[in-house]
């Protein structure tokens, strides 16, 4: 019994449950951007499609982070020996099977919605594997590819409608999480050994631009009285640990900044959802945050 429980916990640790919740909110935010909550809640088929996309992102994100640990197994023996693979709880073969299964499930779930959704899922899975195996070791390409995974994930949510009911020009919004996650990934390189202030300053500037863009859209959609509250909370979540890390760029401080950068995605997605679907739906997305924080205490985020 202890052996089975140990294995199950090992698999869960590989999948980063707290992070998966942030990926689910990407899908909800993407659906809100294209008008799903204004037009799709009365249609059972549309609801089922959204559920399939949520299943897809669970598989894609889970598979991506599992393969991250598979490819980092040798390095983790030195830097993170407590992780499931280097500690011997999960073998590389077992982790590879789990990661492959999750990616396949994610892709198939997306194809049940549409061919367009399916190919976005294929690109997401490919980008995750490219990042895990090669790009993460490149100072520029790594953050961009990791950001691309998030941008594609938001696009996956938007693909619940092949044509946006709010306007096709909205597809470029997927660039915003690319920039945001690229900044988080950039500073994550120093979370083990510590680093310099420069990447943290760049992240601070990028965060400000992201908040500004969402603010502009809240004005365009007439949600200027509610979205700023979400943005203020989002800024507090991500800037508080970032400023602490800027004062003392040690490994633990940078690690906390990265953690809250990832968890802060829920607040960012709540702001997007509030901007395009209204306050109640934004609050629903924000309700994922306490659970993600709890899971973040039980399972590693970075």
From TrEMBL:
Compartment(s) of residence: Membrane
InterPro entries referenced in this protein's UniProt entry, alphabetically: Prenyltransferase_related, UbiA_prenyltransferase, UbiA_sf
Keywords, comma-separated and alphabetical: Cell membrane, Membrane, Transmembrane, Transmembrane helix
Transmembrane feature ranges: 20-41, 47-67, 88-110, 144-163, 169-188, 200-220, 258-275, 281-300
Pfam families: UbiA
Membrane topology classification: Multi-pass membrane protein
Major localisation: membrane
Keyword Hydrolase among UniProt keywords: no
Protein name: UbiA-like protein EboC
Originating species: Chitinophaga pollutisoli
């Amino acid at each position: 019994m202890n052996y089975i429980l140990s294995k199950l916990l090992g698999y869960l640790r590989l999948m980063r449950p707290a992070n998966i919740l942030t990926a689910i909110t990407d899908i909800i935010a993407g659906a809100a951007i294209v008008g799903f909550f204004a037009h799709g809640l009365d249609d059972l088929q549309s609801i089922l499609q959204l559920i399939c996309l949520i299943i897809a992102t669970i598989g894609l994100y889970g598979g991506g982070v599992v393969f991250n640990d598979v490819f980092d197994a040798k390095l983790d023996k030195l830097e993170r020996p407590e992780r499931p693979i280097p500690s011997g709880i999960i073998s590389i073969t077992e982790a590879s099977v789990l990661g492959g299964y999750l990616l396949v499930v994610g892709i198939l779930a997306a194809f049940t919605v549409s061919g367009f959704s399916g190919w976005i899922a294929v690109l997401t899975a490919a980008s995750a594997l490219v990042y895990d195996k090669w790009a993460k070791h490149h100072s520029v390409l790594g953050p961009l590819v990791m950001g691309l995974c998030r941008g594609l994930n938001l696009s996956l949510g938007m693909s619940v409608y092949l044509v946006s009911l709010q306007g096709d020009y909205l597809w470029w919004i997927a660039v915003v999480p690319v920039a945001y996650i690229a900044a988080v990934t950039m500073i994550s390189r120093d979370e083990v050994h510590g680093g310099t202030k420069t990447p943290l300053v760049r992240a601070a500037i990028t965060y400000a631009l992201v908040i500004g863009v969402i603010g502009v859209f809240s004005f365009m959609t007439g949600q200027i009285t509610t979205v700023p509250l979400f943005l203020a909370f989002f800024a507090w979540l991500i800037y508080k640990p970032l400023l602490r890390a800027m004062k003392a760029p040690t490994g633990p401080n940078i690690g906390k900044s990265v953690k809250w950068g990832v968890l802060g995605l829920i607040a960012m997605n709540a702001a997007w959802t509030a901007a395009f679907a209204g306050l109640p739906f934004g609050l629903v997305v924000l309700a994922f945050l306490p659970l993600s924080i709890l899971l973040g205490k039980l399972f590693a985020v970075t």
